[in-house]
Design goal:
172 residues; 3-stranded antiparallel sheet; elongated; alpha+beta
């Protein structure tokens, strides 16, 4: 007979999420991030050139363009730090994803809450053969999706298979 007991858990017995060893995304994801940042800043710099009030004051236009160029340089300088911080970790009952270098976010989804797992790519990630894996849980909140970027197809398919197989709570 299988009896389930509701045992007390001591706080000292709990492994904090922050102490997990997070697996990094693929290193070529760095290039994807740099290209995305470059596209965004090129659009911003081009848009600034289209604002008519800036045409009348070349000094203001030059200041706006220099500020955008400086922001671009800072963003590109932080790319390595962004890459080093992104990662995912699997435990026996859940998957966690960490991101954000200034405002750290660790999202954890229990396997039994997973409703859908999908793999996708965008134009830039396609160039490098990288995929995004979306894990959708049963939450009603706006943040009901966990997205892990920068995965090879093999790794994404393996993770997807594992998550789908673990998604049934009765399998534990």
């Amino acid at each position: 007979m299988n009896t389930i007991t509701d045992r007390q858990i001591w706080s000292g017995d709990i492994q904090p999420i922050e102490s997990l060893c997070f697996e990094h995304v693929e290193s070529s994801y760095l290039k994807v991030v740099v290209i995305r940042i470059t596209i965004v800043y090129l659009l911003l710099i081009g848009t600034a050139l289209l604002i008519p009030p800036l045409w009348e004051n070349w000094l203001l236009l030059a200041g706006v363009e220099c500020a955008l160029a400086a922001a671009f340089a800072v963003n590109v300088a932080l790319v390595r730090k962004i890459y080093n911080f992104k990662g995912y970790a699997l435990r026996t009952r859940d998957i966690s994803y960490r991101s954000g270098i200034f405002f750290t976010t660790v999202t954890t989804v229990p396997f039994c809450k997973i409703q859908q797992v999908s793999i996708r790519m965008n134009l830039v990630s396609r160039i490098f053969g990288l995929y995004y894996m979306d894990v959708i849980n049963g939450s009603q909140s706006a943040m009901n999706q966990l997205t892990i970027p920068g995965l090879t197809l093999e790794k994404a398919e393996r993770l997807k298979s594992l998550l789908i197989n673990k998604a049934d709570c009765d399998n534990d």
